[in-house]
């Protein structure tokens, strides 16, 4: 099946959020952002984040926050495009990935069904090219390879690690994808780290730092007694009560 670009109208027309806000959000790990989301948007407790495990070869890299570039790939079937058409599509793909609000995160769904991860789209070349195009990392349920040669500082969350790229090619880009339980549209704001990823609705993004700080304050009395040599069940009950009173 010849690949076609889908969802060209899916990219949102709203402007980028302040860079300072993205930098602030990146100071928190993704679980903390999930906690904050429960405060400001409790209706999203069951949606908008990865729910299946992903491999993170670079767990020590800091959280990344950026706008999604969405792609579908497959590797068990050859592309039906001619060499010239494939070359043009590669340029179109790179133009899509390398333009728009930045920084960007590539989110790739492998649509090979039971053979998901059969061939790796990502390795030494793609990680370096995407980094040069202004991407911070990739989130995919497909496979990746070339871990020692990977672009330095370029984050990866992947379904698996494998040796070959088989017939891997981009089937479509710019449309809606679903990776590890998380539905993503082009230009969605993504927060991700070694734990997974979450979509942040832009209209509530500015509320998350305060909510994250609130969550931290609520945890402090509980952690303090849990780590104390004077821990007791009664003191834990008192800490839980103090935590509940923090607003």
Task: Characterise this structure.
The protein is an alpha/beta fold. The protein has two domains: 19-202, Glucose Oxidase, domain 1 (3-Layer(bba) Sandwich), CATH 3.50.30.40; 209-244, no CATH class. The protein has seven helices and twelve strands. 40% of the residues are buried. Mean pLDDT is 93; it is low at 1-13.
Q: Summed up, what is this model?
A:
By secondary structure, this protein is α/β, with parallel strands linked by helices. 31% of the residues lie in helices and 22% in strands.
Instruction: Please name the CATH topology of the largest domain.
Output: Glucose Oxidase, domain 1
| CATH uppermost class of the largest domain | Alpha Beta
Largest sheet: 7 strands, mixed
Work out the number of β strands. 12
Q: pLDDT below 50 for ≥5 consecutive residues: which ranges?
A: 1-13
**Secondary-structure element order, N to C:** HHEHEEHEEEEEEEEEHHH
Share of helical residues? 25-40%
Shape: elongated
Cα gyration radius (Å) = 20 Å
CATH superfamily assignment of the largest domain? Ribonuclease E inhibitor RraA/RraA-like
Number of helices: 7
């Amino acid at each position: 099946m010849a690949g076609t670009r889908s969802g060209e109208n899916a990219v949102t027309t709203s402007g980028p959020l302040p860079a300072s806000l993205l930098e602030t959000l990146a100071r928190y790990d993704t679980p903390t952002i999930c906690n904050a989301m429960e405060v400001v948007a409790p209706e999203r407790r069951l949606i908008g984040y990865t729910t299946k495990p992903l491999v993170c070869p670079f767990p020590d890299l800091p959280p990344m926050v950026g706008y999604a570039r969405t792609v579908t790939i497959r590797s068990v079937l050859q592309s039906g495009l001619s060499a010239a058409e494939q070359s043009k599509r590669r340029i179109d793909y790179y133009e899509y990935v390398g333009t728009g609000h930045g920084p960007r995160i590539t989110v790739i769904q492998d649509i090979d069904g039971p053979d998901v991860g059969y061939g790796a789209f990502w390795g030494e070349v793609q990680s370096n090219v995407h980094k040069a195009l202004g991407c911070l990392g990739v989130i995919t349920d497909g496979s990746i390879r070339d871990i020692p040669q990977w672009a330095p500082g370029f984050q990866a969350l992947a379904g698996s690690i494998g040796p070959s790229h088989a017939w891997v090619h981009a089937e479509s880009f710019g449309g809606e994808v679903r990776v590890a339980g998380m539905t993503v549209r082009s230009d969605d704001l993504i927060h991700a780290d070694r734990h997974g990823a979450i979509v942040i609705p832009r209209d509530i993004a500015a509320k998350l730092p305060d909510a994250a700080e609130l969550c931290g304050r609520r945890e402090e009395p509980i952690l303090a007694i849990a780590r104390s040599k004077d821990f007791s069940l009664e003191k834990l009950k008192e800490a839980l009560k103090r935590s509940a009173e923090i607003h």
